[in-house]
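Materials and Methods. Structural model of DUF962 domain-containing protein. The 179-residue sequence of DUF962 domain-containing protein from Shewanella fidelis was retrieved and submitted for structure prediction as follows.
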Amino acid sequence: MKSAEEQLSTYKSVHLNPKNIRTHFVGIPLIIWSLFLLLNLIPINFAVANDPVITFNIATIFTLGVLIYYFLLHARLAVGLTLFIIPVLYTSSLVAQMPNAIWIAVAVFLIGWVIQFIGHHYEKAKPAFVDDLNQLLIGPFFLMAEVYFMLGLEKQLLADITPLAREKRRALEAAKKSA
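The predicted structure was written out as tokens:
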């Protein structure tokens, strides 16, 4: 598994423009919420002998898996992500009970991606996930890191990832020019 510094520097390398970062503070939460809503629509039933069926949904299981991954990457950032994800899981589960929940999820998902691509227009760089699908999980992690940085927290992490990100960006631009 790549380190938090490696993951964040890769993501930041195509998120250096402040306008792009601001669009991500809107687009990523919309996408996350819509995905949780969709995952809330998929129940999983566990039958236990002589007991009633226990029902979970994919969103709950996904939440546990993703939070474990984030805690393995960087525990302090994972605490912030946990505080973000719990209300997302709860509100999306409430909306999942509505009759048109799937259409709400699709609409919010599309709006989130439109906002993301507007941000990348400012950045003049393709989204990070184009080259590495794992970067889809790093988007929320990156935003939480940015929140911590804005609050004056995790200064060493910022100092570690920023030069790496700029280096990676220069390499991307040099490769693009030589192609």
